[in-house]
Amino acid sequence: MVVSKPPTELLFSYGTLQLEPVQLATFGRQLVGVKDALPCFTLESLTIHDESVIEISGKSEHTIAKFTARESDLIPGTVFELTSEDMANADKYEVAECTRVQVTLSSGRRAWAYVDARSLP
User: Fold this and answer.
1) Domains of the chain (ranges plus CATH)?
2) Can you give the pLDDT at residue 118?
3) Closest CA to 112 of 95, 86, 96, 97
4) What is the pTM of this model?
5) CA-to-CA separations, 97 to 14, 24, 106, 112, in angstroms, rounded
6) DSSP 3-state assignment of 118?
7) Which of 63, 74, 107, 110 could form a disulfide with 43 if both were Cys (CB 3.0 to 4.6 A apart)?
8) What is the pLDDT of residue 74?
9) How far apart are CA 84 and CA 72, in angstroms?
């Protein structure tokens, strides 16, 4: 009998980590999440050069969250409950332009999110 670890982390996703093929490749299962939103950020286009990420996502153009500090800016997405192993797998999937930071979502929940490393809050 395999005992799975309980989720200990929250991850907010606004992009490809919401896609079933990406979840299966990254976590080995489809995730169930809750809708939420990330204030003070906008989405920008990001060209992906990592062939493994392009193969998994099926896209060479992704989006990246850029910090603006404007409360009116809001990115919709999904919050997933993950294990520490899942988070390590997500870190491996994300590209160098992204960094993982703690954010406060519209719901008031604190979660990790991958954002533009060049525009940190």
Assistant:
1) 9-116 (3.10.490.10)
2) 84
3) 86
4) 0.88
5) 16, 23, 24, 16
6) coil
7) 63
8) 97
9) 32
